[in-house]
Design brief:
- It is a single chain.
- Helix content is 28%, strand content 27%.
- It is of the alpha/beta class.
- It has a single domain, classed as Rossmann fold (3-Layer(aba) Sandwich).
- The longest helix has 17 residues, at 37-53.
- The protein is globular and about 70 Å long.
């Protein structure tokens, strides 16, 4: 069983995000970048499946500029066997990302594709579902537990009010949620070994894909700064402020 894991380079979740002065996007200059946290969970699950189920290969793939090699090397240091970078300087919408990944999947022929349920920058939660639709593969989203039995994958997913267990036939797409596992840390020897593992760079322009951007970002603005709260002496004073100042009643 070959497992393909899609990963994305994003602003580190512990960094305070700053909006550019021209409101064209988020400032990423001179700030810490890291692998999308949901994708880390997907990589960890792929490695566990290799250890428990004897998966033949774990391949990590990313779409971005040359700096995304750092994210792929992180995946290799965690234990992935090899990496693929689809190099592009542009920022692509979820549908185009799914189309690019479809080409990689058709070339690599994995039995299982693991992806984080969403990236923490766009928060779209669309790419896994779109990729499954383009490939016409079964999918299971928001996985909180996963087990492989032969050609079948049993996935427990969190839904409103409880949990749902699905069984899908491989090849399949599975998107991971936070409670699926706890990602491991890369050891120093594995970080050194990762430098020797194969990392293939593919140029997006040479892949023969016709991509059309479906979404345009018009403006990015920071949230409104909240003012400090005030204490009131009675319920009637609270109701008065809610009615006349906050105007929510």
């Amino acid at each position: 069983m070959k497992i393909l894991v899609a990963v994305k380079r994003v602003v580190d979740p512990y960094v305070k995000v700053r909006v550019k002065s021209d409101h064209s996007g988020v400032d990423t200059q001179n700030i810490k970048m890291s692998m999308n946290p949901f994708d880390e969970i997907a990589v960890e699950e792929a490695l566990r499946l290799r250890e428990k189920q004897g998966a033949s290969e774990v391949v990590v793939v990313s779409i971005g500029d040359y700096s995304s090699q750092e994210t792929l090397r992180q995946g290799l240091a965690l234990g992935a066997d090899r990496a693929i970078l689809v190099r592009t300087n542009g920022i692509h919408c979820s549908l185009n990302i799914a189309k690019i990944l479809k080409k990689i999947v058709l070339d690599e022929q994995p039995q299982l594709v693991l992806m984080g349920k969403q990236s923490i920058d766009g928060d779209n939660n669309q790419t896994p579902q779109m990729l499954a639709a383009l490939l016409n593969w079964p999918q299971a989203t928001f996985a909180s537990a996963l087990s492989v039995m032969g050609n079948q994958i049993q996935v427990t997913r969190e839904i409103d009010g409880g949990e749902e267990t699905l069984e899908v036939t491989m090849p399949a797409i599975v998107s991971t949620d936070l409670r699926l596992n706890e990602p491991r840390y890369a050891s120093l020897p594995n970080i050194m070994k990762a430098k020797q593992k194969p990392l293939t760079i593919l140029e997006l322009d040479a892949m023969g894909l016709v991509l059309k951007e479906h979404i345009q970002i018009i403006s990015v603005t920071p949230p409104v700064i909240r003012t400090g709260g005030v204490k009131v002496d009675s319920v009637s004073a609270l109701v008065d402020k809610l009615r006349h100042e906050a105007k929510v009643l």
